Amino acid sequence: MQRKIIHLDMDAYFASVEQRDYPIYKGKPVMVCHTDEIDSNRGVVAAASYEARSFGVKSGVSVLEARQKCPKGVFVQGNYDKYLHNSRHFTKICRRFTDLVEIYSVDELFLDVSFLSFSKAVATAKRLQDAIAKELRLTCSVGLGPNKLVAKMASDLNKPNGLSVITPEDWPDTFFPMPVKELIGVGSRMQKHLNIAGVSTIGQLAGLKTVYLQGKFGLPGLWLHRAAMGLDHTPIAASGGVPVRSFGHSSALGPGASDMEMIEKVLLALCEGVGFRMRRQGFYSKTIMLRLGLKRLFYFTRSHTLSKATDSTRTIYKQAVKLLRKETEFINAYPCTLIGVSACNLKPYEIGRQLGFFNDHKDSLVCRAMDKVKERYGEQSVVRGSLIGFRQRYKGVAKVELTKVSKGHSSFCNRWI
Question: Which residue of the set 18, 102, 108, 401 is catalytic?
Answer without folding.
Answer: 108
